[in-house]
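Here is an idea for our session: we take a single protein and study its fold together. Once you have written the record down, we can walk along the chain together.
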Amino acid sequence: MKKTVGILGGMGPQATVNLFQKVINFTDAECDQDHIQALINNNPQIPDRTEYILGDGEDLTPHLIKGAIKLQQLGADYLAMPCNTAHYFYDEVVRYMDIPFLNMIEEVAAEVDRKYGNDSKVGLLATTGTYQVGIYEKVLQESGVNLITPDESGKEAVYDVIYKVKEGFDDIKFQSVNNLLAEMKKQGVSVVILGCTELPLIKDKLDSEIDYMDCTEILAQRIVDYASDQENSSQIEVEAEMVTQTIE
């Protein structure tokens, strides 16, 4: 029997919809009954992640914990969260959970390592908050990946595009991001991580000559695999328990 996924979403709503659509697309289904049962907590009232990290916003940890516990109580067998920046709070949320919680950052890093190997140059487009706390640096450096990020003005350009997507796709300056991508190509990057779940929504507007790591695509595939993969399920349960014990 397939497991039920709980999706801690709303950060933002369009990214949550995009993740679930990919879950449907990746599921090998011939009828309704072949699909994965999902519980989605789409809560856009969760405070802004970057604002808190930069010292200007409300602590969202209680909101994430409450949402995750609700999904667990409703019957989710495992959780996923389609927001890169919110993974800064991942360890704190996990300590309150009795079920596994897929880590999107680690899944993306594993895919980078699998496809491009050690010593590869990897670009990162993300929110200011994700850059600030080094969410991807921490996991990628362990495998020897050379992470390439924009300068401060470039980070602001990416941030502006991300929040324009959240506002409804109006007046987005795609050229500013494509200029960054062109610069990354000159630096020899093998692939660029779309490290914000709004960015896959505009992937078709970005430089088509670059390979991208679509974080929601990777997470969606992992959700599908995990739903029926008992061996991997057991491994993640062990890892989640180890994280909890370490924190305690």
Confidence is low (pLDDT under 50) at residues 244-248. Residues 19 and 187 are 31 Å apart (CA to CA). The longest strand covers residues 121-126.
